[in-house]
Amino acid sequence: MKVLNFGSLNLDYVYDVDHFVREGETLSSKDMNVFCGGKGLNQSVALAKAGIKVYHAGAVGSADGAMLLDALKSVGADISYIKKYDMASGHAIIQKNKNGNNCILLYGGANQNIGVEFIKEVLDDFDRGDILLLQNEISNLAFIVDEGASKGMRIVLNPSPLNEKIFECDLEKVEYLILNEIEASDILGASDTGEDELIEKLTKRFPNTKIMLTLGEKGSVYVDKTKMIRQDIYKTEVVDTTAAGDTFTGYFIAGIVSGTDVEAAMKQAAMAASITVSRKGASPSIPFANEVCEK
Question: 24, 228, 243, 276: least buried by Cβ within 10 Å?
Fold first, then answer.
């Protein structure tokens, strides 16, 4: 079984602020750092650091993409399916407040230049039963879902950021849907819905899908046809939450690929995410498997 992550690669410009900028306000930042990120890259890094051979497909700018390629190569991810374009790489402007929380402004750049012919070329090298991990920061997402499903690939979707492109996808073709409360509410069109009601509505809407609902400080809940499993967070001092969800996703899928049962995979993912939030940055903050085992 091979693991293909067809996902975004972003340069993250992180600004430390006392509070998030308000409408009409000009605010000075206390510090600024540049990290490699993007949900796709972060999840590939998490998979690689968890010990899984991951192939990353995507696009970067020819002038500014070297840092992103190096970040993936340095952890052992395969970058042979990443194209270079004569345009800017995707990037994010991230405000991080004194509590470690963040808000993010995305620019798609090369991530939004992924065409159907390139997608077909990549997927030609993968087969039935291979894992196809997707997020919503690249172009032609619905086409990738359809093509992957037609090949019999096992599709894992983290529908973030949630926008109209998600509703163009045939979500019935997704085996694992990993999403947070806000994304779940938006997909269901159910505002002001409690956790238990969200789970009930998700399972009714997607009866054949394995659902992972992440709940921030309340942990996570996994539901499929036969079971429901809850996992608490591991408390730690929060420095930066930027890649916490991506770490959880990467480590959870790593557990599934390795044949670990769901409960153990959730535990490892929660441990890894707790280490990530205790560090600065996106992909650099993601721990290696030996660090998680030692926690």
Answer: 24
State if pTM tops 0.85. Answer: yes
81 - beta bridge partners?
A: 57
Q: What is the pLDDT of residues 135-181, one digit of tens each?
A: 999 999 999 999 999 999 999 999 999 999 999 999 999 999 999 99
Phi/psi of residue 78, nearest 5 degrees: -85, 125
* pLDDT tens figures, 207-260: 999 999 999 899 999 999 999 999 999 999 999 888 999 999 999 999 999 999
User: Given its phi and psi angles, is residue 140 left (phi above 0), alpha (psi -120 to 50 degrees) or beta?
Assistant: left
> Which residues fall within 8 angstroms of residue 18, CB to CB, at 6 or more apart?
27, 30, 97, 98
